[in-house]
TrEMBL record:
Domain Nucleotidyltransferase-like residues, every copy: 105-318
Coiled-coil regions listed: none
Source species: Rhodovulum bhavnagarense
Region (Disordered): 355-385
Ranges annotated as biased composition (Basic and acidic residues): 357-385
Protein name from the UniProt record: Nucleotidyltransferase-like domain-containing protein
A Pfam family matched in the record: NTP_transf_8
Length: 385
């Protein structure tokens, strides 16, 4: 594993702080501009932006001789200067440091939802788009983190959506500003609320929420008051994933402040869901990608001496019951021998540091069983995405 050079780690930390500060500093679109115009001998401020078809949209702000309004215009100019500086930081981190960035569509969608307040309302970016942020967050290069993706997944606890007393604008309106071809996909239950939206090119956006109730709830979209009319698909194990998320920055445009799952939770969650996919076709490919991402994150965290964080979350998952233990143990047995031994050894060291008994939590991988697994999986190569 190759670590990110220290100067680039410092640069990313500065970008993260400045991006977060900027997200609180203006209610105006940072890609628009203020202009002045004379009307009947008096000058007024207007704000120019563009719609999704590139047409100019002008809105009235107020008279130039209103000192409070002019102060806001001056503050916005400072924000614009900061945007230019942050764009240079993002460019250096991507082009010089070689950190991964999202594809244009995914980045624009995350940015649009961020500006609409999704992350302010404690939403969490999940899935492969979130995985792309971990290289910068950890300060280490993860193999294949720059993989293309045709979807973006967003999660929020239902209890938070209900409790915050705030709501985003209509989700479809937000998405259509990125791509006018976005359309809601009818839910399989036949309920009118949609949890997924898709473009004419096939890019999907899905909203998720944890399911802590019966399995039957998986077939019912959950109404989410904060999500601008969108519902969310209830999923098992998601509460484990999005608990206590991390703030970081997606390397797109001038940097987008986002919430993502803690990397140790992402890794253990991927172990679990890799065993829950159906066999064959696209699900098998997703299962291989799940396991690959889990392996890369766990190996990186162990090399970065983050054993304790990984071990703590690993033990939490194993303590959740027999089905969790069975899923995690099954996934670990699918890892190539060298990687599996390294990960189990690293977690064991972390458990000892936390005064926990490794024998209680770590599955045994007998040598004969391991050889059979290597023979059938080609030492793990068949699960690479």
């Amino acid at each position: 594993m190759r670590k990110l050079a220290h100067p680039f780690q410092v640069l990313f930390s500065e970008l993260a702080q400045r991006s977060l500060d900027a997200s609180f500093s203006s209610s105006y679109d940072p890609y628009g501009r203020f202009i002045s115009a004379a009307v009947k001998g008096r000058r007024y401020w207007y704000f120019d932006t563009q719609d999704h078809q590139g047409r100019r949209k002008r809105s009235y702000v107020g008279p130039m001789d209103d000192t409070e309004i002019t102060k806001r215009v001056e503050a916005f100019r400072e924000l614009k200067d900061d945007i230019r500086a942050r764009r240079k930081m993002v460019s250096a981190l991507v082009n010089q440091a070689g950190l991964p960035k999202p594809d244009r569509t995914a980045g624009d969608i995350v940015e649009a939802l961020a500006h609409a307040g999704f992350f302010r309302m404690r939403g969490v970016l999940v899935g492969s788009v979130a995985f792309q942020t971990y290289s910068a967050l950890l300060g280490a290069y993860l193999p294949e983190a720059s993989m293309m993706t045709g979807d973006a997944d967003f999660a929020q606890f239902h209890s938070i959506s209900v409790a915050i007393g705030d709501a985003m604008p209509p989700i479809l309106d937000i998405l259509e500003k990125v791509d006018p071809s976005f359309e809601p996909i009818p839910h399989v239950s036949g309920k009118p609320a949609s949890t997924r939206f898709v473009t004419s090119s096939g890019f999907k956006v899905e909203f998720l929420t944890p399911n802590r109730g019966p399995e039957a709830y998986n077939d019912r979209p959950a109404r989410m008051p904060a999500l601008g009319g969108a519902a969310a698909q209830p999923l098992r194990f998601l509460d484990f994933l999005i608990f206590d998320p991390r703030r970081t920055v997606m390397l797109h445009r001038a940097g987008i402040p986002v919430n993502v799952p803690a990397p140790e939770r992402y890794a253990v969650h991927k172990l679990i869901v890799s065993t829950r996919r159906k066999t064959g076709g696209d699900d098998s490919a997703k299962s291989r990608k799940d396991l690959w991402q889990a392996q890369q994150l766990m190996e990186a965290m162990i090399e970065l001496k983050m054993n304790d964080d990984l071990a703590d979350v690993f033990a939490e998952a194993m303590d959740r019951g027999p089905s969790w233990r069975a899923a995690i143990s099954s996934a670990l047995r699918r890892l190539p021998a060298e990687s599996g031994d390294k990960i189990i050894g690293g977690i064991g060291e972390g458990l000892k540091n936390l005064s926990m008994d490794p024998e209680k939590y770590l599955p045994r991988l007998p040598g004969t069983e391991r050889k059979d697994i290597e023979k059938s999986t080609g030492n793990g190569e068949d699960y690479r995405p």
